[in-house]
Amino acid sequence: MENLIALLVAAPLLGAAVLLCGGRRLDAVGHWIGVLMSTLSFVFAVILFADLLGKNAEHRTLIQHLWTWIPVESFQADVTFRLDQLSMTFVLLITGVGSLIHLYSVGYMEHDERRRRFFGYLNLFLAAMLLLVLADNYLLLYVGWEGVGLASYLLIGFWQHKPSAATAAKKAFLVNRVGDMGLSIAIMLMFTTFGTFAFGPVFSHAGDASEGKLTAIALMLLLAACGKSAQVPLQSWLGDAMEGPTPVSALIHAATMVTAGVYLIVRSAVIFNGAPDAQTAVVVVGAVTLLFGAIVGCAKDDIKKALAGSTMSQIGYMVLAAGLGPIGYVFAIMHLVTHGFFKAGLFLGAGSVMHGMNDEVDMRKYGGLRKYMPITFITFGLGYLAIIGFPFLSGFFSKDKIIEAAFAKGGTEGWILGTCALVGAAVTAFYMTRVMLMTFFGEERWKNRPTRSPEAPSAEPAAEHRGEHAEPHPHESPKVMTIPMIVLAFGSVFAGGLFSINNSFLHWLEPVTGHSEGDSPVSAGAVTGATMVCLVIGVGIAYAMYGRRPVPSVAPRGSLLTRAARRDLLQDDFNHVVLVRGGEHLTRSLVYVDHTLVDGVVNGTAASVGGLSGRMRRLQNGFARSYAVSMFGGAAIIVAATLLMRAV
Amino acid sequence: MSAAAVHSLWTTAATAAEPISKINAPKIEYGQLSPTLIVVGAAIVGVLIEAFVPRRSRYHAQVFVSAVALVAAFAAVVALAADGYGTTKAHIAAMGAIAVDGPSLFLQGTILLAGLVGLFTFAERRLDPAAHGNRVDSFAAQAASVPGSDSEKAAVKAGFTTTEVFPLLLFAVSGMLVFPSANDLLTLFVALEVFSLPLYLLCALARRKRLMSQEAAVKYFLLGAFASAFTLFGIALLYGYAGSVSYGTIARVVDGTVTNVDPALADTMGNDALLLVGGAMIVMGLLFKVGAVPFHMWTPDVYQGAPTPVTGFMAAATKVAAFGALLRLLYVVLPGLRWDWRPVMWAVAIVTMLGGAIVAITQTDIKRLLAYSSIAHAGFILAGVIATSKDGVSSVLFYLAAYSFVTIGAFAVVTLVRDAGGEATHLSKWAGLGRRSPLVAAVFAVFLLAFAGIPLTSGFAGKFAVFKAAAEGGAALLVVIGVISSAIAAFFYIRVIVLMFFSEPRPEGPTVAVPSPLTMTAIGLGVVVTLVLGIAPQYFLDLASQAGVFVR
Q1: pLDDT, mean of residues A590-602
Q2: Given an 8 Å threshold on Cβ–Cβ distance, is A642 in contact with B344?
Q3: What is the pTM of this model?
Q4: N or C: which end of chain B has fewer CB within 10 A?
């Protein structure tokens, strides 16, 4: 059965190769090849899942060794896949949600002439992401890690003719490099510490390493996770990444790739368990990002950027949970999966809205769309209820568990983290209600006015085909787009509940991640109650601000905090002042040193050698007598030197 | 023989009053000396050809005899090596005068091949335009005629050619064969003179620029005689120290295993000053031949003035022979003294590498450029000599073999680039050669890259072997300086390549002559050996490694 594992990766990889190398003759069917390969991978995943379920918990790890990749004496790396409960969970999420989004993209990208290439990139992404979660050693994981980075870069910049998209792709790439450095350093540290980077030996020897070493490795892994998962301080790229086509935002920048950081931390649980200081750093990053993303999400008028802020915030929850140690690992992954469903659904819904609104993204120019797009409204609404944690929907179970776990951390730390998580829940309820109200309720602000003002350039060029400045005619999207949304809505509603029946998800994942209950100072019921109160407060404020009052179609100036949040809490300004300016100064001084000192030495050496040459050749004057004198002098020196050597 | 020895002989004879009944005939192992004997014999036949064969037929007869002799001698070397004389059966032949061992055979083989390739370039008769219907080579029509005189014109008109160059070449080769295998100081000196004198003559025989050629020959001769005097004086001092000219005996005296003092030499024997000064002076004579700084000053003038085929042959074969002799002297005679000579040789190697490379930068004549390059290469080889290890010996052997083919090939290319005045050796005339004659320029570029030591050429393999041996022998500083010199040297090699390929050709630039198969063979062999030794050097490194042990 383990021989199927490689096919999981091979199918989308083959798809990518065929689509990217196939050329124009595949334009007509290319998207279906992409969907087929993705679905094929999903089918394999389901077969493997059924196989795992049929085994005892302790036998649910399948290893497939393909070939030895780097056979250098003490530097061994294999291409080996490991399919255990953790990677199985990811594989199902990636291939399942991935296949749905492939299907959705068939409709969404219908008018794009580079659709075949788009599906090639999507397949490439799937292959890389599967490689990432299936790798049995960190070096192979790194290949997948870089592969998803590449796919993300290519897809963010898919509409590369737009300078904003090209810039956003470059920004994502550069910020991710910082994180990738962390991962590569972590791998090097592992090699020097353990002499290997295969999961098995590293985890079994982690206990022998000193805490300092483990902390160093864990912090480097955290840096990697921050880059890939858009956590503070490497969060700045995610908002701009929304320049990519919406299915990309749904698949890569909401459901799967951005959660790779959480996967990395949970996978390396043994290392983090041995490094409490690093765990503290993880929870701090998680808590800060949770609030950061939520605040940014409150201020954005661009529907995708609001959702991006929300993604950041929800991943903050997961990172927070992962940082709590064994009490949180399972819930981090559980929230990751439910989030994968509802956030992908929300993005697809946003894409559907944009599809019907001439690719307008400004929510201030939406309003009252529920009548025109009933299916989108219902699926989006279910996703909305799931994310704010409405009782008995997916988000309710998973988020509630994380908040409980945060309190269960114990001590002051537990109280602080728990409070952050609770506040986050309230803010989530606020901004998601805001999105919901501004989009589907209220007056129809798009009427009697072209949706696109000159200063707000369109996100998607397909709009050009549909008349740029015409009044939009909101309409429901075709079935190929709505069906994936409906499926995801089912996931948003039922996944959490399904996982929580008999704690099935906990028991499924426990053998890999370990689990402990912790010692909560407050009862689970109290936490749930507090969460409900926060939810009501958040929704209430949002309703008061956006439901009862008309929404101005031009954004008001807003308070200082609002304005800062609109600028992503000044993240780019900070980066610009500290990193860009600093970098420029550093570069300039290095260039100066290079020009004066280095070039000076180099050119000076060349010049002095040349000068020396010119002077020395004058000794060669053509007179045999001078030559003889030179020989005689040389002989005298040699004889004298030989005698001197003996004398010394 | 010293006066005291004669005296003792006489007194012995007088007191014993016993007539000397018989003299033991010296035992000569003709088979083991056959390479040298074949070449010497052919040279004498060549002289007879000059005397008795009609002028018209001499050229063909000479080339034929020389080629056969060189090939036969090479076959004899190979046969001896196959018979195990290079390794297990190595011994000292001819009453202690000649060592037949690995280094001897390897170097003799190299010299014979260099001689053969050199012979091809000597025999080239298609490059110079025919004079009065006679095909001519690079050598003066009549060496004895005064340049520019009527007799010279008459000789040219009569179609004379100096076919004496072939016996001269063979005599030089025979001396070179003996030089690295000489096992006593007198044989060493005789061999030195035997190969030097023909070279002095050959240098004077250029067909074009005869005055320059004669000037070069005179300088070479004067300075060579001066250096020989040093060598001879050194030999005398060493004899005074050890009471013998045999390598083995001197070595044993140096390390103290022989203590019986010849009464006639009681005053001098064991006097370390004699040993040090004498050793230094002999080494100095050899350093002159390899062209090490500060005994290098003849090199550019002579290389430039000599007929280019002679330059190529001389640059390659002389270096092989002289480094062979130097190795044997330092490894067999003076190993007990290595803490004395190593620092001095260090200094010589450093100034040679740097001096050759630096002065080459400002050269404008391709032959002078190659002369300075050969000086720098002498420095690199010295680095291997200093290693004082078996690897040092074998790396030097490999380097010499690689270097000689590149050198002869490079000078052979120089003979092809010509204008109205003969060879166009000024660098400015080489501008844009790659556009006009891409093949010739590419071949020359291969040689230059080999000189520079770029990977995939024999130059890299050789340099790597030498530097590795030097580094392992504790001369890391020398290796650093060697690499720096290589970097400096790479500048002017690559400058020539840039000049050939990336400059506009000059309108009145030189033409490239189409040579006969002889020169083509010489150049082709150079390219093939350069690439083979560069890409797959292991077999030849192993060969040199097997040959790396001196017999004592």
Answers
A1: 89
A2: yes
A3: 0.65
A4: N
